[in-house]
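user: Here is a favour to ask of a fellow structure person. I have my own habits and do not want them to colour yours. Could you put it straight underneath, so I can go through it closely?

assistant:
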Amino acid sequence: MIDSVAQLQNTKERQRVDIESLSHMELRDVQSALRQRTLSPVELLQTTIEQIGAVNGQINALYDLRTEQALDEAKASERRYAKGEQLSPFDGISVTIKDSVNAIGMKWHHGSAIHGAGIVASKDSPPAARLKKSGAIILGKSAMPDFGLSGSGVSGSHGVVRNPWGLSWNTGGSSAGAGASLAAGIGMMSVGSDIAGSVRLPAAHCGLAALKPTQGVIPHSPASTVRSAGPITRKAADLRAWTELLLGPDEADRYSLPLSGKVLSGQIKVGASADFGFGPDVEPAVLNCFQQVRAVLDDMVGSVVDVSKRAGFDAYLPIDESLKMKGWLEYSSADPSLRDLTPVPLFEWFREAETWTASKIAEVNSGIEKGVAFSVDLLSDVDFLLTPVMPVVNFPAEERGIDPYMPLRHTTFTSLFNQSGNPAVSICGGFDDRGLPIGMQIVGKRLDDFRLLDLATRLEAALAIFGHGKKNWPTNPVA
């Protein structure tokens, strides 16, 4: 029996995997190679660390890298594989976690300089704890924007995160560094969190797949009725396995709940809508991609029906005001000597919440409930709903959103489903004439996450965007 890393490294059965090949491997292929020991956790990690060294200076996606500790963990994993004692199918696989996901000894900044040098976590959040228990290797943290309150990679603590598909373009946010690093081939998954679209937006901007689960399916802390932790991967085919690892009740999240497995079978009814009756106009490139994806989905399921329901009011506005309250609370609870480090545009956006009365807050909550009722109505006659992720393809890297007065204004199609708790998946639907990815969203009914993931995986396979002779993820970022 081989019982040391050095011995294993000298065997002929191992092969070096280059970053471009790794970026196209599905999780199950990596797991199979590790089991068969044609790929080792140490090689996997070394390839990933080399890629970080090659590109992180350009994309500015990751911080708090723990390469030495990760290498020790990879060597331990390698010894377990040599003995056939791996902890789980995820043992030795490199991942990252978002700034806002606590892990013991790693720094939490929440994207903002108002938190000083960062707060070192003394306890693992549920996603971090489950990753560690599985043997997955948390390589570092991914950057996010200030307070998580913009759909961008503009951060007071981390700087500007840049999109490897084009360094002058935005990554989306708030799981910005997760999107940029995965698109550049780093890691097999990143845990993000989503309060208005924060895993789906970077997935759309960066040509990836992401799940915002039914609220409570993947536990997180602190507990929230609208913010969900969720996996981001390069391929939708990988989402289910990571979801199964991360899901299930946890004492740290009082809203967490169980989810049983289901597969897509029998007749399903799928609807489509690119107009909820409010929000920014949908760009022609996004509409064109939406129609192309709809046609492929139509062939898959037999018929996709129009969902022509309109809200009759701007359902985003009360969500925007709830986010202003969130911003004001974080700002006002920070060290007074550091508050001036809040970006001025964000402060000007949320400062009015300081004077809001109980009646104003009640009005906001009432507006949100109207939006929830509309969200439920959108799916009342269908099992799944296809929409764009965003009304736009992209915007410059240095901007916080398409509207300087509402940094999450472009979450027309995503933010409603945080409030209603519906699961939603983002996949890459295609590209515009500049070669920038365009995201498409599929929404399911509550607790139908697994069938939703199955549908998204089948649709991604039918679209066949990535692969040999097709699109490649930009492991060499585009200037």
Observations:
- The radius of gyration is 21 Å.
